[in-house]
Amino acid sequence: MTNRFKYPRTPHLPWSLGSISDDDCVLKDTRHFEGKLVVITEKLDGENTSLYQDYLHARSLNFKSHLSRDWIKRFHAGFAHLIPEGWRLCGENLYAMHSIAYQNLESYFYLFSIWNQQNECLSWDQTLEWAKLLDLKTPKELYKGYWDEKLIAKLSIDTNHCEGYVVRASNSFSYETFGQQVAKWVRPEHNATDQNWMHQATVPNRLSTR
Hints:
Blueprint: E1 37-43, E2 47-51, E3 56-57, H1 70-77, E4 88-93, E5 109-115, E6 120-121, H2 124-134, E7 141-146, H3 149-153, E8 164-169, E9 173-174, E10 182-186, H4 190-194
Antiparallel strand pairs: 1-7, 1-8, 2-3, 2-4, 4-5, 6-9, 8-10
């Protein structure tokens, strides 16, 4: 299990509305983003899942059985042999409805980062190349360019259909520096509306019919 890694906790941006109920993980400022090329993607309301060549897990490294995870196990089995040894693909398992009922998903899995055998997160452009190679979907891009706090803080988000957004450095970076490379904005009380989904009846989200 030495090559298994729990996905790091993503800090809130200072203006994140969801930080009120999660205030022990909030950035004091965003100076470390200044001068950086960043990409901002939609934050999807699902279960964080890591896929390896020979294993998969959610937040916990011990993958417990659950009806909502049956689909991701079958999906992973179809391309696991294409994942390089020591690499892991991290994304959102959207099979089960949490607090947002998706009606038009392109897939139940959306890839948002890839980590190589040195535990380095690939650049966003490399991530998109691998997504195309493996025929995986990625979250919608909301912004791509140099960090601009005033512009980013004013992003318009429909909180009825979107949990928030995630900012990440466009370049590659190490696991140890994650907290300086990635941050999020989430809608208010997102934890309260999502924390009990595994104890409720599993309601599948809907895929696009196109």
